[in-house]
Amino acid sequence: MGILDKFFGSDKEYQIQLEKEKEEFEKRELEKQRIEKEKEEFEEWKLEKEKLEEDKKLENLKEIEFHSVGRDKTLEKDHNWKFNRLKFLNDLKKEYSNHELRLSLSDLNSKVKGGVFDRPTNWYLLRNDLTNSTKKISTFEFGFGGDDEGVIFFKDHEVCLFLGRTDWNYFDWDSDDFQGRENNFKNVEIRSFFEKCKSLYISQYTQWKEKTLEKLGEEEKEINDYKTEIFKNLDKDGNGLVDITEGNDLSILLKKHQNKIININRDYLKNLVKISYFLKTKKNNIQSIFSSIREISDKDLLHEYVKTLEDDIHSYNLVLFNSLNMVVSLVEDEMITFYEIYEMFDNLNLFDSKHQKDISENLKNIGYNLNNLIQEIQIMSDRITNTIQDLSYVTEQSNQQLSSQLDEINSSVKVGNFINSIQTYQLYKINKQTKGLTK
């Protein structure tokens, strides 16, 4: 074996060595390729993950057309919806206080001015619109934007959106145009910011709407409870009809004694029939007013209307009681009592029932003004009460005579109870007026 053979080994051994080294080299190459492939796959996975996170972020702040919130223009007008722009801005500033795209006034000035050799950006192209209006720059509140697009808020409730070299628009913050604006920003952060603006506005509006509706619900319950309390004195059985003394007794009594009254004076019968008609019309009007005021939701107004209705019922009772006594005194030949009542009715124009007929016609008219009508009724009720509330002519004998006459026609009216109800209400009114004077 030569020296070279000793150093390199035999050809066979040499070939084996080469094959072994080649195999190891290929393994290293394959490992290297595997590592490179894993790196590429990792980078792809990382990019995919970032994209998914961005998509998820946008999904969480997905664009919502503002009308989907259910804006109620009537509710806004009636209950003074007012957008709290200060809270809106503070929430935005807090959310994006450290964000790299947040803009200060100096950032805005820097962007719109640009440098001499700088590439003209969209901000730079926007500068004529902004710098020509000193007011706009001086009223800057908050901004958020990148190199070519952004959102700027001004103190005069105006917001500027721009997405390109010629696409910039100004909106009122509290407008459907702004809230329903399509989100076409290219930068995902600005798109996210714009959706955040919408979501903050929507959240503020929704909270206001929910609180307002909740308050209205509480007020409705309160007014319904109040209605139940005050109406139970007018409609004890809850059948929707006012508990009022039946006035047909006068008509029945007149039919019973019409011949005798005609023999005394035919005109007396005619005028008493007019009183009977007056009472029937007044009773129907009382029921119509009662039905109308049941729909009132204003507590103070309802209290006032119920008070007027109670006064009107009292005046009805006074007219009915006096008219019944008028008939009885006429047939019993108690002419002084008859003439006293007759003169009171004549002074009140009760023999002319035009006033009650006018009220009836107004109640049938869809466009009638209930408040004006209530005032007219109150005036007439006060006149009747002030004129015929004096029942000094009533004696035990006159009560017995009236009771006897009503019993003969099977009337449900109990004279004693009827007088007590009239006097009780009169006392209630006197006490109320006295308390008012002492306050």
Question: What's the structural blueprint in terms of helices and strands?
Answer:
Elements: H1 3-8, H2 11-60, H3 73-78, H4 85-95, E1 102-103, H5 105-113, H6 122-131, H7 134-138, E2 140-145, E3 150-154, E4 158-162, E5 168-172, H8 176-179, H9 188-231, H10 248-264, H11 266-293, H12 299-331, H13 335-347, H14 354-364, H15 370-388, H16 396-408, H17 415-438
Antiparallel strand pairs: 1-2, 2-3, 3-4, 4-5
Helix pairs in contact: 5-6, 9-12, 10-11, 10-12, 11-12, 11-14, 12-13, 12-15, 12-16, 12-17
Describe this structure in words.
With 439 residues, this protein is mainly alpha-helical. It folds into two domains: 134 residues, no CATH class; 207 residues, no CATH class. Strand 3 and strand 4 form a beta hairpin. It is rod-shaped. It starts with a helix and ends with a helix. About 2% of the residues have low confidence.
The separation of the N and C termini measures 141 Å
| Fraction of residues in helix | 55-70%
Please work out how many helical segments DSSP would assign.
Answer: 17
Question: Class by helix and strand content?
Answer: mainly alpha
Kindly give the count of domains.
2
Q: What is the CA-atom radius of gyration, in angstroms?
A: 46 Å
Widest β-sheet, arrangement of strands: 1-2-3-4-5
Percentage of residues in strands = 5-15%
Shape: rod-shaped
The whole-number mean of residue pLDDT values reads 80
* Strand runs, count: 5
- Uncertain spans: 61-68
**Main β sheet profile:** 5 strands, antiparallel
- Helices and strands, in order, run as HHHHEHHHEEEEHHHHHHHHHH
